[in-house]
TrEMBL record:
UniProt keyword ATP-binding, yes or no: yes
Species annotation: Anoxybacter fermentans
GO CC list: cytosol
Protein name: PhoH-like protein
GO molecular function, one term: ATP binding
Amino acid sequence: MIQRLFLIDSNEDALQLFGQNDRNLLMIEDAFDVRLAARGNQIVIMGDDIKEVETVHRLLKELSDIIEKGNYLTEGDLRYAIQIYQKEEDAKLSDLHDDIIQVTYRGKKIRPKTKGQKRYVDAIRKNDIVFGIGPAGTGKTYLAMVMAVNALLNRRVSRIILTRPAIEAGERLGFLPGDLQRKVDPYLRPLYDALYDILGSEKVQQYLDKDIIEVAPLAYMRGRTLDDCFVIMDEAQNTTPEQMKMFLTRLGYHSKAVVTGDITQIDLPRHKKSGLALVQNILKNISGIEFVYLTGQDVVRHRLVQEILNAYEEYEKRAKKSKQNGR
């Protein structure tokens, strides 16, 4: 039996590292072939495999460093850290926790929570047009909104424009009752929710009243030139190729665009192609445009969301294979 001792500087940090009723330590034990014994502000790592013991020691050291810097360790953070340390021998997570993108009006620090999210945020920093493609729960839209707010508050842009195709109404909004705002609100609600979380409802309303932030369906982008703006198009898998071209060619001087979508969730009629699916082949070699692909490993919602997505992915693979074999 191999034993390794890990020391924590403060009792307060030790309590957070251990988790309630040592829950965090139990999660680590379940993931690795080791036993952990908490004694005061120290942990004894015990196991028969020296590699496993050393891996857990490195994991605990990094988690402890993250906590020491004032970060709160969530169950999702721990679950992701475990996944990375299981797969990568040279795993390192400090870059994620050190990259604070924005602080919300409530004082919450927003940062990328996975390596995929970190690549996505860095791509937005470096490029004028970025496509964030991946399943639900990977933070595509939320992180784009955070980057837009950060650009606005730091005066790198003067406006934020948020849009998505109102596919549920076929974009025939004239058939709905009420003024434009009331018509489009149901389709754009997820964008408002993210803004409220970052800026607070009062500040968001001020920006909306002054047209500093504009939220509108994709159909209302036609014929415009968007200068000095941070533009986000959400649910882009539900654009046609013509709509995608129209949107991308609206971009003016000193502007940045982020396009998000999930090509496995296309709601267009079967005879119509998705603009997001097609654009990947058209624009993939243009400098200043980057495609970032997020996966189930980047899901930051409830742990079951990731497992549900993985289960559906496996089912779809089996169904596709069965269909091919049946030909």
